[in-house]
Design a protein that fits this description.
With 200 residues, the protein is of the alpha+beta class. The chain has 2 domains: 64 residues; 79 residues, Orthogonal Bundle (Arc Repressor Mutant, subunit A), CATH 1.10.10.10. 28% of the residues lie in helices and 11% in strands. It is built from 6 helices and 5 strands; from the N terminus they run βββαααβααβα. The strands form 2 sheets. A 3-stranded antiparallel sheet has the order 1-2-3, covered by helices on one side. It has a two-stranded parallel ribbon with strand order 4-5. Helix 4 packs across helix 5. The longest helix is centred in the first third of the chain and has 14 residues. Belongs to the MGMT family. This is Methylated-DNA--protein-cysteine methyltransferase. Keywords: Cytoplasm, DNA damage, DNA repair, Methyltransferase, Transferase. One of its GO terms (cellular component) is cytoplasm.
Length: 200
């Protein structure tokens, strides 16, 4: 995962714990819960950390909209995003996640079929897990085929809380599944495509 050299960050409290936000000149490029797997800890803390800019307009908007969403006052986000730090395949997966509406869910297998990579379910799952903008790019809306909760970098209790807040039901077989818009993308050579397996 690559980040713009001019990235800045801020922190905001939420009912699910503190959140780190990051923004590049192009838009919001990161949202991680404290303790979340795959967060770029080297850039969030320590001598090489990104500068803190609590007045940055994108970070302020993201914090405000996140609070509204978590309070049940918002179902969609209106923010510029910068997802360019991922591989072409990862970016295609993250763009597809943006097509899953609030209150709906999908499976890893369905997501791989939308991307026209039906055998790349494990690669899709890996890309979902590496999503750098949690909640706003809604990786929490991807469930197992049976509707069961599966791995979430921010922790399964947070995933369950988010789905319940949206009115989705994470119990097996009870989730509201909805098709997501087809994403048209050209993939460059990507080693993650080697991680193929059975449908989720």
């Amino acid at each position: 995962m690559q980040f713009h050299p001019s990235t800045v960050q801020s922190r905001t409290p939420t009912p699910l714990g503190d959140v780190r936000l990051a923004a590049s000149p192009q838009g919001l490029s990161g949202l991680w819960f404290d303790g979340q797997r795959h967060q770029p800890s080297h850039w969030l803390d320590g001598p090489a950390a990104w500068p803190v800019d609590d007045a940055h307009p994108v970070l302020r908007q993201a914090a405000a909209q996140l609070q509204e969403y978590l309070a049940g006052q918002r179902t969609r986000f209106d923010l510029p995003l910068d997802l360019s730090g991922g591989t072409p395949f990862q970016q295609a997966v993250w763009q597809a996640l943006l097509g899953i509406a609030c209150g709906a869910t999908t499976s890893y297998g369905a997501l791989s079929r939308v991307l026209e990579r039906p055998l790349a379910v494990r690669a899709v799952g890996a890309a979902v897990g590496r999503n750098p903008v949690s909640v706003i790019v809604p990786c929490h809306r991807v469930l197992g085929t049976s509707g069961s909760l599966t791995g979430y970098a921010g922790g399964l209790p947070r995933k369950e809380w988010l789905l319940q807040r949206e009115g989705a039901t994470p119990q097996p077989g009870a989730g509201r599944s909805a098709p997501i818009p087809r994403t048209l993308a050209l993939f460059a050579d990507d080693e993650s495509l080697l991680l193929t397996g059975a449908a989720a």
